[in-house]
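fold description:
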Amino acid sequence: MKKVILLCTLAVLMFACKSTSATSTNTDRKSQVAMKGNWVISSVTYPGSQYVKVNTFQIADSECFVGSNWKFVSNNNKGTMALTKANCMAFSSPITWFVNNDGQFVLKVLNAGEKARKVKEGYILYVANQTESSFQLIDKIDVAGKMTDVVYQFQKVN
C-alpha cells in the first residue's frame, strides 16, 4: 500500500513540475494565417549596430538579411528563406515555423531534404506590430551582459 501511495505521489509531482516550452503550447492560427505569403526583410535594427555585429541564425551577419526573401505557408508551417544581398554569402534553405499562443515565433532552418523532427536546434523570436502588410520578429541577444532586442522588419511582397 505504501508503494502505491509513493508511486502516485511521484507521478503527480512529475506532471506538476513539467516545464512548458515554446514548442509545447498551442499555435496562434490567426497570426500564422496573417503571415502567409511572400515577405522581404526591409531592415534589421538594434542598439549599437554600428559597433556590434550580430550573426543571425548562425548563418550570416544581420545586415546580410536586409532584402532577404521569405515564404511562409501557414497550412503546413513550412516555407523558404533566401539571402540575396550583394557582398554577402548567398544562402537558401527550407524552413519550418509556427507562432504559439504566447506570441513566440518558433523557427527551424533545415538542410535540403531534412525532416524538421530530426532538427533539434531552432530559434525563438517574438512577433510584434503585425498588420496585413508588415510585422516584426524580435530576437533577444546578450550584448556585454545586457539583453538587447534585434528587430527584423518584414514587408509583404505582392
